[in-house]
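Run: sequence + guanosine-5'-triphosphate -> complex structure.
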Amino acid sequence: MEIGVVGKPNVGKSTFFSAATLSRAEIANYPFTTVEANRGVAFVRVPEPAVDLGVEPNPRNSVSIAGYRFVPVEMIDVAGLVPKAHEGRGLGNKFLDDLRQAGALIHIVDASGATDEEGNPLKPGEHDPCDDVRFLEEEIELWFFGIFRRNWEKLARRVQLAGESFERLFQELFAGLGVREAHVKAALRETELDPEKPAQWSDEELFSFARALRRLAKPIVVAANKADVAVAEENIKRLKREFPHARIIPTSAMAELMLKNLAEEGIISYVPGEGSFEVLKPEELSPKQKKALEIIKKNVLERYGSTGVQQAINTAVLDVLGKIVVFPVEDENRYCDGEGNVLPDAFLLDAGATPRDLAYKIHTDIGENFIAAIDARTKRRIASDAPLKHLDIIKIVTKK
Ligand SMILES: Nc1nc2c(ncn2[C@@H]2O[C@H](COP(=O)(O)OP(=O)(O)OP(=O)(O)O)[C@@H](O)[C@H]2O)c(=O)[nH]1
Ligand SMILES: [Mg+2]
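>> structure
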């Protein structure tokens, strides 16, 4: 499962991606800077469980900073999407293909309104970012629709003549788009279309189905980016009014990237997601950097509480996808693995995942030899098929 960073050209996708993954994607103020998708590892931020337990963690697959655990999640930064991309305009098809495995999308919108619909620079405030929100959803829905329609005859034949189950077959044919059977069932319920007679669906009905499925299979968090620019504040209010059900998070990817870079150099201390930073070596800051930090503090951190980048990732993974974080350990008394590493790993699991699912996630062998699970906090056994809870610490008991 990946988080896809999407949007029209020149809105800050690569800046957001670089800040989130600390890798160096190419950034420039013109459209189509990114052609090949960038892949990297971003992090979800959760409270560090070692704090309450009074132990010192030795993370292996994750990072522990200042009382938070940063849990890895794959992220992909794709080429900008322009109107009619689903017909192949711009880098359309390629962009869309790169998104197949994304479980959720972070839609980067230029909330400063300083780019037209193709990503060409304008003066701040000249473009309405509300248009961008509508256009991106529609492009993805039209892309879905096109793929379904091309396969519809085959699907209808197999359902209506060979008697195959619509839900199963649909899921199988479009698994490559990240569509799951549960999504198909939910989209059928929502649209009230007849899964036994797909040949009779009109194009309009198929489009409404594609739209319902897009909402379920590619849910979107809107990052209202360039929030550091003055006119963005008014636009963000409008975005929230216009789309009351959308998840809209003000972000300044540029601010996050600068703070993380300076923190990496040891010039400031900054924990991703926090609303403040501390300057450690003021003598190493240029006058320009000092000015930029002042603007970040005043226009971003004090106005919005944080740069929003961490919040957008957390919202996508924990709220929208409903993932939970679970910590497997081998020794439930010392909370460590076989080598004495305390709380070494943190895994992202689907909501409803059971101890048995966790066992398989650690290793197939552990899954196959699963006997029982122990909640390390209470030292009690828990049912192998009961859903795990967010931030559980679990020992899996296996037969030797
Ligand atoms: N003021 C401001 N500028 C930003 C912010 N994020 C990105 N930018 C600027 O926006 C321009 C485009 O940034 P990129 O990250 O290359 O945008 P992109 O969406 O990846 O662009 P393409 O790859 O061409 O589609 C650059 O000049 C960035 O410095 C932000 O939070 N605030
Ligand atoms: Mg880019």
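>> summary
Residues 2-129+219-318 form a domain with the Rossmann fold fold (CATH 3.40.50.300). The longest helix spans residues 129-160.
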